[in-house]
Automatic annotation (TrEMBL), chain A:
InterPro entries: PhaG_MnhG_YufB (IPR005133)
Segments passing through the bilayer: 6-29, 41-60, 66-88
UniProt protein name: Monovalent cation/H(+) antiporter subunit G
Domain of life assignment: Bacteria
Gene it is expressed from: mnhG
Keywords: Membrane, Transmembrane, Transmembrane helix
TrEMBL record, chain B:
TM region positions: 20-40, 56-79
Stored InterPro entries: Cation_antiport_E (IPR002758)
Keyword Transmembrane: yes
Keywords tagged on the record: Cell membrane, Membrane, Transmembrane, Transmembrane helix
Family stated for the protein in its record: Belongs to the CPA3 antiporters (TC 2.A.63) subunit E family.
Signal peptide residue numbers: none
UniProt subcellular location: Cell membrane
Protein's UniProt name: Na+/H+ antiporter subunit E
Membrane topology: Multi-pass membrane protein
Amino acid sequence: MIDGLSDIIAGVMIITGSIFAFLAAVGLWRLPDIYTRMHAASKAGTLGSGLLLLALAAHVGDTSTFTRALAGVVFFLLTAPISAHLLAKASYAVGYRLTDISVIDELKD
Amino acid sequence: MNLYVVNLLLAIAWMTLTDSFGLGNMIFGFVLSAVALSLIREQVGSVGYFSKLGRILSLLMLFLYELVMSAVRVAILVVKPNMNLKPGIFAYKLQVDRDHEITLLANLITLTPGTLSVDVSEDRSTLYIHALDCSDIDQIRKDIAEGFERKILEAFR
């Protein structure tokens, strides 16, 4: 009974995580410039990979796997915003322009 | 002595006494010693410690909730036929001024719906934020100031 339940939970998390990872990829493809693309990569991507790691932890169910999966999630949460921020900052510094439909740019001055 | 250190020492004592050094037992020992400390909070002056712990936990919960919401929002956005983007970069005047608080706020902003921190000004007074929908900048500013920034100030001041 418990086994079945953890399998169902793990399965649901794997499917949800994959959907988010897929939609992050769709976002990278559809959004117009690097700044808007970082939104998709840093958010949907983080949640997707986080859910996949947690699904692994729920499925295997022993403490050492669980701790490492949890550490993986924590590192994702710590590093994804930093890399998104650095990529955006570096792109701005070397002069990548915002997409033409942008409405405001207060960093210019 | 710092109550966090006391809490940790008690947890280590618990692990030694029960002769089990797994993570589960450590967490249990930590919770157990936190309960013990909360029983004598009037005597050792740990009232502030516990309300601070509560505020940090509530910041963590807010963070996880916002992350899920923002991923859902981005996911919904990218499957819409007409994305109707109004992207742009706007300036945000910071109330927090310590380095670790600015770092935390910038990270939280990046993980919330539609916003991404791009840069901090040299004098650390302004954060430049890229948003997917810049049609109502004042509302975004208000959300950050009353959500994350207030929580950070509560947790660390």
